[in-house]
Amino acid sequence: MKTLYSSTFISIILAFLMFNGYNGKTVDVEENPAVPYFTNIIVQDETSVYEAVQIEIFDDLVCDDCADFMKNTLPKIKDLEQETDNIEMRLYFIPDINDEINYMAAMSLKCAYDQSQYWEMHAKLHENKDSLNKKSFIQFGKELELNTDAMQDCMTDEVYKSSVEEDIKYASEKNITFKPTIFINDYLLIGNQPFENIHKIINKSLKEIQVKPIAKPASAAVDPVTEETLDSETADEQTGPAEIPDVSATENL
After folding, report:
1. Looking at residue 221, what DSSP letter applies?
2. pTM for the full predicted model
3. What range defines the domain where residue 138 resides?
């Protein structure tokens, strides 16, 4: 069941956040009686210029509302990102550094990314967050039909330890206190916000961005991967289309 937040409670949260470094003013999202959630959102800097709508989501396994948000709201944001130009989303899974299982969960998520099962592992973690143990992550790998030997090596060797630590440091620099927390360009949305609020801010941000298309000579040959202009000799050597790697998932590391 979703948690309802009183206006007094949210006012306290917003005051606390601003005290801890969140500068800006609150923005009222259009009231919707069907959405029993707070609508206060902080806009930090209205002078920034963006060429895309950048969405950053901060998540962990400890917060009460993260599982609900990741199950019911995140898929809608992902669909919107795929369907709409100029939207870039990145998820930061921030573990408690004093919780070994939580930390291992963050490592397993990145190891699963190596085998193109990032979102599938992410769902497993939230679905089973109350029963995780050291054996859970390899078991999830089996259920997802991963190469469990490679998964085990990745976990044992702590291949992504530095990456996890960088995420933790970045969250600290952003003054992340509550999760889920969502940044949409300069807008800060706190807690288990309904998709209606998020969608409204995304649409507002899309109207504010300044897209700068790169003009290329119509007659120039362009490498499909690097997008660099080829000279005539190099262009002649291109016998077919280059294979374009799938890099979309790298946004989540």
Report:
1. E
2. 0.69
3. 99-163
